Amino acid sequence: MSPQESDCQRRHAMNSPATKAPTVVLVHGYLDDGAIWNSVRTVLDEQSVPSIAFELAGMGERASDQGPFTLTRWTDDLESVVRTTQGPVVLVGHSMGSQIAELVAARCADQVRSLVLVNPIPLAGTHLPPEQIAPFQAPDLTLDAQRAFRSSLATAFPAEESDRLAQVALRVAASTIADTATAWNNGHPDGQQPSRYPGGVTVLRGESDPFVTEEIVSSYVTPRFPGAAAQTIAGAGHWAHAENPAAVAAVIGSVVDAAASDSTDGRPADAWTSAFEERTEESFGNALAPNVRMEASALAKPLERKEQVEALMAMASSTYESLEFVRKVQDGPRTYLEWEATAFGGFEMKGITILTRDDEGLISEIAIHHRPLGAVVQFAAKAGAPLTEAGLISADYFTHPEGE
User: What is the pTM for the complete model shown?
Assistant: First the structure.
């Protein structure tokens, strides 16, 4: 687990009851500012939905901030906002802001309940050739030119808002503009693979957007999010949130309602089974509470340090040649998972895993029972030995004294 991920989860665990309604965090795009979300926020406020408009460094009220101006820097900044937001979050990003929102959602998956991408630039970037990206790297900042720029990509961009943003753009340093355009054009390496964010995703696109086209969304955005919902915003181009704020706010409100009503009961099992698919310490760590305690038939005594549980589960999951969760029973905070597996050259085994969640929906207690006895012996020997040799878990956890 990276330091950013663990810190984010620790802060979330300390600050946010699972029953708290999500806060909407809104991320603007290229040459815009946080105030572009004002019309959407007005509607959300009428629905008693709390919201925060995040301002990107180098733009808007932060035009005087120093660089670097990269997706990584903005992601670090936004993560800090999410960390200090009490309770769960719904992240909403527009255009370039969608790239940043997705990266933060992946880092703080346990706090970010859902992700809404508005006219999203693919995380992998657009990779426009030099002659096409040049006008974005060094745009004409005169009022008429900025009006023309927005009207060329929009259907109903409010005139007053267009003039206001033209003044906002004038305050942005030329080098910042160039770096910003280069950042979204080049994208992020994570965009070349399925998204690391496992939660719900809604993709909104203005029906007349000539820049983020339907083909771009269907080819490069939604396929990276299994089960993503895609909607079209009528009467809008690239700035759907400014052109039809009521429609965009309605979708965000629905996402918030769904996130607020989503019970935490099923989350531990989903996170646990997903972790077995990824087989990494990070994936198990995302599911575990900081004070997790683990018992298992292959252990002589409980593990009570999170990093040890992560290491053991990553090692154990990698030993399975096949694993199927065949039955699940939910009883309040406890989830009972029955499974069947093969390991160690086709050795067949069965077992039951009991997961107990805390108030955050994170796994605080684990009990794993294998059968037959040979499975217990082999796991203690073959999964325990590498961890002991690496100094991660001492040998006495895998050695059962006589008479016990």
Answer: 0.66
